[in-house]
Design goal:
With 307 residues, this protein is α/β, with parallel strands linked by helices. It has eleven helices and 13 strands.
Length: 307
């Protein structure tokens, strides 16, 4: 079933227990957001929540409304309609306190190349009025401890992205906005950043993650929100979506004389006889298969993320 705009199919989990009302409530609330550029509606009635300690994957193709929504959530744009509540603060009227407790890591790498990683973090911490920071600990957390004093101009793309992540964590944020944090990175850098994101959620930060990589979203997200043409299509856990909208199957490769036969058995059908026949053969491999988030997004949106 496709969600009505703004309807949550799975409630956000409350991962972090606290007696504080603020921490018991959603950390990020988008309520019926609308925004237009001239006569072009970019965001059309978007609603969702992110709980403390939750990672919400915000997924959609280019032009779907992701970036505009993020700009409203972080206070860079004022909605034409609806409201944004972050950590109990209305971002249209009371954004300073909320922004002081945010961390953001966007694709633009606005770092100072002539400075070292340590100098970059020290400089930005002064801009934010932060003191007594464990800069070495932050750099170690993102795997840059051994390059702390090297100029950023010598850094690879993955190292720059890890430094951007460290900068986003300077203020120990309660909410974290991440835009394509592992896009185009090598496997080692991607794994390091995923580890940091998981650690921040485990600490209690609410994480909103935008990505084109459905595998990445599946690995990291507690829930995912599909957005297309400015509207939320569905919000649910990856597991629920795959169970509800995918078809489970088993792919069996077996030897038949001199030939190799491959059979796909749909588990949602009456598969007992086929499975019985398959396991009596000279089996080489058996693999279970399920729908991917990409498959399910296409089912809801009628197109893929790259279209």
């Amino acid at each position: 079933m496709v969600a009505e705009p703004g309807r949550l199919l799975a409630d956000p989990p409350s991962k972090v227990e606290s007696k504080s009302e603020e921490h018991m409530a959603a950390a990020i609330e988008a309520k019926h957001l609308e925004f237009s550029y001239a006569d072009q509606r970019a965001v059309d009635g978007v609603s969702f929540e992110v709980a403390p300690g939750e990672i919400l994957g915000f997924l959609g193709p280019n032009g779907a409304g992701k970036s505009t929504t993020i700009k409203m959530l972080t206070g860079q744009l004022r909605p034409d309609a609806g409201e944004v509540i972050v950590l109990g603060h209305n971002m249209a009227t009371d954004r300073d306190d909320a922004q002081a407790r945010m961390g953001v890591c966007f694709e633009e790498k606005n770092l100072y190349d002539a400075m070292s990683a340590r100098e970059n973090l020290a400089f930005f911490s002064k801009l934010f009025g932060l003191t007594d920071l464990d800069i070495d600990g932050l750099l170690a957390q993102v795997g840059l401890a051994d390059r702390a004093d090297d100029r950023v101009s010598s850094y690879s793309k993955g190292m720059r992205q890890r430094l951007m992540m460290a900068r986003a964590l300077l203020n120990r944020p309660d909410v974290l906005f991440l835009d394509e944090p592992t896009d185009g990175l090598d496997p080692v850098s991607s794994q390091a950043i995923r580890k940091v994101i998981k650690a921040e959620a485990d600490r209690g930060a609410a994480v909103l993650l935008t990505t084109h990589d459905m595998h990445e979203a599946d690995l990291l997200s507690d829930r995912v929100a599909f957005i297309n043409d400015g509207k939320i299509l569905v919000v649910d856990t990856p597991e629920n979506l795959k169970l509800a909208h995918g078809r489970r199957s088993v792919r069996v490769r077996a030897r038949s004389g001199d030939e190799i036969e491959e059979t796909v058995i749909e588990l949602d059908d009456d598969a007992g006889d086929q499975l019985h026949q398959a396991v009596t053969k000279d089996i080489l491999t058996i693999h279970t298969e399920e729908a991917t988030l990409e498959d399910i997004f296409v089912k809801f949106a009628g197109r893929g993320l790259e279209e």
